TrEMBL record, chains A, B:
Transmembrane regions listed in the UniProt entry: none
GO molecular function, one term: UDP-glucose:hexose-1-phosphate uridylyltransferase activity
Family: Belongs to the galactose-1-phosphate uridylyltransferase type 1 family.
Residues forming coiled coils: none
PANTHER family: ADP-GLUCOSE PHOSPHORYLASE
Transferase as UniProt keyword: yes
Binding site for Zn(2+): C45, C48, H111, H162
Official protein name in the record: Galactose-1-phosphate uridylyltransferase
The organism of origin for this protein: Roseiflexus castenholzii (strain DSM 13941 / HLO8)
Domain (Galactose-1-phosphate uridyl transferase C-terminal) ranges: 183-309
Amino acid sequence: MPEIRQNLATREWVIIATERARRPEQFILPSRGSVLDRPEYDPNCPFCPGNEELDLERFRIPASGDWQVRVVRNRYPALLEHDEYQRRLQGINRSLAGFGYHDIVVESRRHNTCAALEPVEGLITTLQAFQTCAAIYRRDPRIEHIVFFKNHGATAGTSLLHPHAQAVALPVVPHDIRVRNEEARRYFDDYGECVLCRMREDEERQQDRIVVSSRHFTAFIPYAAYSPFHLWIVPRRHTAHFLNATADEIEDLAHVLRDVLRRIYYGLNDPDYNYVIRSAPESERLARHLHWYVTVIPRVTQTAGFEMGTGMFINTALPEESARFLRNVVLPDDSTDNDYD
Amino acid sequence: MPEIRQNLATREWVIIATERARRPEQFILPSRGSVLDRPEYDPNCPFCPGNEELDLERFRIPASGDWQVRVVRNRYPALLEHDEYQRRLQGINRSLAGFGYHDIVVESRRHNTCAALEPVEGLITTLQAFQTCAAIYRRDPRIEHIVFFKNHGATAGTSLLHPHAQAVALPVVPHDIRVRNEEARRYFDDYGECVLCRMREDEERQQDRIVVSSRHFTAFIPYAAYSPFHLWIVPRRHTAHFLNATADEIEDLAHVLRDVLRRIYYGLNDPDYNYVIRSAPESERLARHLHWYVTVIPRVTQTAGFEMGTGMFINTALPEESARFLRNVVLPDDSTDNDYD
């Protein structure tokens, strides 16, 4: 029988559609060729070494010698850095000039790779670059909210093959974020604790939906996961903003995130995916009721009119089964994945 | 310069990304063959005449002779009609048994057609079938919310080619609907009027974003449209629930909706799309601050990590240009579209 479950943090209901549910194995994609089949260097790729868009560069890591990760302004930004900061009210319509930051984090020198195939050092450096970006954006008092994400593959919204992630800083707090944060505040009001901490502890006690855990993080499929293999990586230490993560936590997160991405890559045959780092709005970065975390969303199903008309998801996989499947993926020996020395 | 616009009804901010914006013509899809290339009858299609799943039938229109539209229970429903209605609290996790209605509206006898190519009578009958469904579901006091939608094409979430729409009745009010309705209530509190009425009147005065208007409806691209060609069809008469629409309004809506779908079909080369009828929750169907309407979402772009992490949309088309493009689509003579006598 289907079940309607509630996500405690967001209060959203999700239909777990057992009548149409598929076994985890049924989500494994047919092979579509490996990223390794691509050339290591593409002369037309603006992210490949030698083609660097130097006019757009914000910083590189390391600063001298061969860079490992570069942060560049987006050539086609959704938002522009400019001086105008003005809210407008024309008749009933509210708008503001599209000010903000929209950067690209080039994650590797190599064109033919992805996070699941790279040594962990690459992901550590990417996460460090995110933190540096946040520190830069934060100096601008007009910035209200910062979000980091990666789009892997065409159905996840990317058009450039060279591995890259993105950072966006906004002059508004998105409505959806405000609504979620209100729910977190209400939970804190009622119970005197953070809802994310509570959910993480509960998952650790139950163990059914845990995929990976480490010293600082727990990766689990939420009880009311929105889609098959939708996964949260929650830090054990309670703090509202990703920029509060210590160097030690960043390194540990890179290991856990890479482990999760490898389980998805090898277990499901390299599906497209998004990951997002969710953090408090800038003005609430000290809020006791907020908790930063990472969400990973493999793109193995399609949203349809129902989701658009209700905001409610139909998940055709049982979260407990999805977690067991990812836990049991046999990963190849790490050292065979790359030809770095 | 990009612009950040607010949708007055939902209070959501949308980035109108002029730096990456495309002209309306650039959204026209390459041709992928016509639905008319398919056979008119498919022996393996459960919706084709002769293959009817009679055990699943709820009703047909007309009741005798050749049916024009059939309503059948979904063979793989997201929710089941059953007697158990129970909320459960296990530890911190809330759930309820997956009770509800999930029906299919088979829109035509023909396998190789779509709403844009059919005579308007087909769409009138489909909308009448939706109303009959709502009247049936409403008799069940456990139903909290009813939604109608259509998924056209694979990227819009459909797997069966035979033209069909869907009806779902839920035992909960989706969180997203509650949040939107709270915003509508707040607007009514502040201004003593319905926000949808206000937006429709404003669009009619400005004319920039109107696509089609009729005796009872106005179809326009909202000022802060979420995606290219995202369109609302708003009834002029203020009422909260779709089931309150009169026979005259239903017939008029069919004409307007079909006109919009034809503009999308011919103008953009038959993209996948969803449409949704948004209506008040059952317990609020008399609410003065709520207003039913139809939203149409052509699937010409992909959502990515940014949308997932913020709930905020980046629209790469200027709403005014999208509206002008759809207004100016030259439609073929209606009578050439079908071979009905």
